[in-house]
Amino acid sequence: MAENFRIQHYPVFENGVFQKHPTLFDRFGYSKKRLEQIRQVLPKYEETITWPLLTGPGFCGATHPGADNIFVEIMVGFNDSIYNSDCLYVNPSHRVFAISDAPGITDCSRRLFQQLDEYLKTNHADDLETIVNKTNKEMREREGATLSLVCLPKDNVDSATVLVAGDTLVFHGNLFHRQLTQVEGNPNFIGTAYTYFQSSHVELAPGDFFVIASDGISSIKGKHKEARLEDTILEHLDSDTEKFVLSAIRRSNQCYEETLYDRGITRFGGSDNVSMLLVYPEKLEDTGYEGSFILGGHTERI
């Protein structure tokens, strides 16, 4: 039932963050008068712009508009709206988990999942490859979007179906061995004419899990600057898998110091929308819930 799932909202900008980090403004080169005007306006954005985190038995997912992405928009024009072209999809009854990312300010990724969701109401998840390719033919290339998807069939607990289209990422990992490997896919976006997207099957072992992430996850900072993305993601994984996505998304968007033209400045992480899903097959449950969740993929007024 729906009570097995929870959506919590967290602020993009914590209370007092702009006062705490005055060097956030240094890279813009505005006059003192202009900066003072901006500082007067900025507190209204603290704790008012939020991002959602969805949790359920065996999975956790979130989509974030990108802290630096939104900060720059505010600094440039005092915008009264935010956008997140990333979209997250969870269908518990079909055990389908996916993330899509469309370039630009668009709701293409949300429309892709709405179409996928309609197909799943009348088709079995075993036909996912057919469904995805039917969706591909119906989308125009200029409205293309990535699609990374993991399906855990109820009748085959030893295998997962994985499909990757575009630059959204899927990682297959194991808790016991502390390892994470990227699953390769098709570099084309959904909406690319004459392209057939093939799914692959991944054999599962005890302790296996999947991480699905949009390319915005590259903003995540690790302990070592030269560390592989896989190793940086693993730094946030411990025995409490529900906290993994929260930790990783926050780390992708927190403030950090860097040098720009021989002077130190402060930046927010999150120069792009960033979304992440953790799926832990062994903990998935049949809750009897027939609905689905679609988060992100639209523009909101503040």
Sheet bearing the most strands, described?
Answer: 7 strands, antiparallel
C-alpha end-to-end distance: 32 Å
CATH architecture annotation name: 4-Layer Sandwich
Indicate the proportion of strand residues. Answer: 25-35%
Strand order of the largest sheet: 1-2-3-14-11-8-9
- Radius of gyration equals 20 Å
Please state the structural category.
alpha+beta
Low-confidence stretches: none
Q: Total domains, how many?
A: 1
What is the CATH C-level name?
Alpha Beta
Provide the helix percentage.
10-25%
Number of strands: 15
List its traits.
7 helices; seven-stranded antiparallel beta sheet; alpha+beta; 302 residues
Q: Helices and strands in order, then pairings?
A:
Elements: E1 6-11, H1 17-20, H2 32-41, E2 50-56, E3 59-64, H3 67-77, E4 81-91, E5 96-101, H4 108-122, H5 128-138, E6 147-151, E7 159-165, E8 169-174, E9 179-182, E10 200-203, E11 208-213, H6 229-234, H7 242-253, E12 255-260, E13 263-268, E14 274-279, E15 293-301
Antiparallel strand pairs: 1-2, 2-3, 3-14, 4-5, 4-15, 5-6, 6-7, 7-10, 8-9, 8-11, 11-14, 12-13
Structural notes for this entry:
This protein is of the alpha+beta class and 302 residues long. The protein has one domain: 4-Layer Sandwich (Phosphatase 2c, domain 1). The protein has seven helices and 15 strands. It has helices at 17-20, 32-41, 67-77, 108-122, 128-138, 229-234, 242-253; strands at 6-11, 50-56, 59-64, 81-91, 96-101, 147-151, 159-165, 169-174, 179-182, 200-203, 208-213, 255-260, 263-268, 274-279, 293-301. Strands 1-2-3-14-11-8-9 form a seven-stranded antiparallel β-sheet. A six-stranded antiparallel β-sheet has the order 10-7-6-5-4-15, with helices on one face. A hairpin with a 4-residue loop joins strand 8 and strand 9 (179-182). Helix 4 (108-122) crosses helix 5 (128-138). The longest helix has 15 residues, at 108-122. The model has no long low-confidence stretch (mean pLDDT 89).
